[in-house]
Amino acid sequence: MRTFVKYILKIVLMLTVSAFALDFFYTTIFEKSVPRTKFQNLRALKNQSIDYVFLGSSRVENGISPEVIKNKTGKKAVNLGFQASKLSDVYMIFQLLDFYNIKFKTVFIQVDYIFNIENGCSNVLSYEILPFINENLIVSNHCLFNDSDNYWFNKNIPFYRYSRTSQKLGVREVLSNVIKKKSNSFENNGYAPLYGHFTNDKFAWPNTIALKNKFYDSIVNYKIKNHKEVVFFTAPYRNLNNDFSFVHKLETKIPALNDFSNELPHNRYFQNNNHLNHDGAVAFTNVLIQKLKL
To answer: How far apart are CA 279 and CA 80, in angstroms?
Structure first.
């Protein structure tokens, strides 16, 4: 019996040591390798100076070209829009700009119906930040908000977060980082162009607007406390019924909102109701340059 117990303890010890070693190896690779994800690229901007930062969802990522801004104004811009981002994600990125000492002149934040979503997060971003859960409280708190059920295990049990997300953060992704396999996550300073023609997917605005969004309030409070220049705006939609009443309601919640929701009323600029194609992104970026005096 004693021999059996010793055998089991040896196995447990070996598994524990292996888990710690693998966790350290994976985390170090994600921290030190050439960036492959957009969040890794955000970390790589540490100590840099940027004129304009754009935050939001895919409607930012697919709709604003920093290259056009650079060519037209000579100013440096970065597109930090993430697929399916909510205001909770935007607030995290906004704070991380300071944590990573990224200097900027103005942050532009795209807001639309995500004002109604207080308990959501970007699934894409939630995977990308997981290797850095212990790097700082900003990321750690966002991981808690996003996945409270697994938070303690992700943070404290070695290799747990990698084993349960192996389809995103597994051996294949680690090896891709090790061999410095390129990705297109940050081509064009974060802008991801869409191509194709407009298809009407019968998009409908929400019928009502939330009384408030705590993350919008947090962004405003952080802006005031830290003396940041923030501009809120709504990017173009293609609504065939021309019903933009939700945006008018949104303006009551965000008085300084720059409404561009109906700025490009032509099918040729859109891939679908919510997203501009490349031609639309170029056109909209030029609108921003002109109307926001970039």
So the answer is: 20
List, for residues 249-277, the tens digit of each pLDDT value: 999 999 999 999 999 999 999 999 999 99
Residue 98 scores a pLDDT above 80: yes
Measured distance CA(77)–CA(104) in Å, rounded:
9
Residues 6+ apart with CB under 8 A from 39: 125, 128, 129, 132
How far is 142 from 193, CA to CA, in rounded Å?
28
d(CA 133, CA 141): 8
Q: Above pLDDT 90, what percent of the chain?
A: 79
Residue 134 · residue 127 · CB < 8 Å:
no
* Residue type, position 3, single letter: T
pLDDT-derived band at 5 (thresholds 50, 70, 90) equals: low
Model confidence at 197, pLDDT cuts 50, 70, 90, reads: confident
Count CA atoms closer than 13 A to 71's CA, side-chain side: 8
pTM for this structure? 0.95
